[in-house]
Design goal:
The chain is of the alpha+beta class. It contains 5 helices and 10 strands; from the N terminus they run ββααββββββαββαα. It has a single domain, classed as Sandwich (Jelly Rolls).
Length: 169
Amino acid sequence: MLPVCGHLPLMPKPSQQQDLSLLSSSKNGLIYLTANDWALVADKAIRRKFKPGDHLVQEGRRTHGVFILLQGAAAVQIPGHSPDRDIGPGEVCGEISFLDELPATANVVARDETDVYYLDRPTLQSLFELFPHLGSRFYRSLASILSRRLREVIGRQSGSQTASKKHPE
């Protein structure tokens, strides 16, 4: 249900409506969130812009929240692992630090002009208290994202180990 002002429902701003459409159709993002969930998230999120080379997430520093890319691309740089992994619209970063409240395990650097929604822990906690099912779908989505990303890293490592066994130096 949309928020109501007087007797008329408030409609999302056109740019916010485009954001919601993009986010709800993303296959690599918070896939279990409903259209209503996204409307609540977008209403509470802070929209931020990053220039190419700016850090969204810095290894060794806590994020205190999550970033959801709306536009642009960013490189995930994991120390000791290459190549970098690019993330784009609809994808999330900063989730590991958000979940365990420890410093980030990677750098995430804007490749070009990048717009994001940022949601800090207190904002998300208050949303989850008001809408417990949103919290359940949010955390289920994060679990799915982390599982997929771990499988990708394992796949790259096993592929490089197989290649090095075939071609010893």
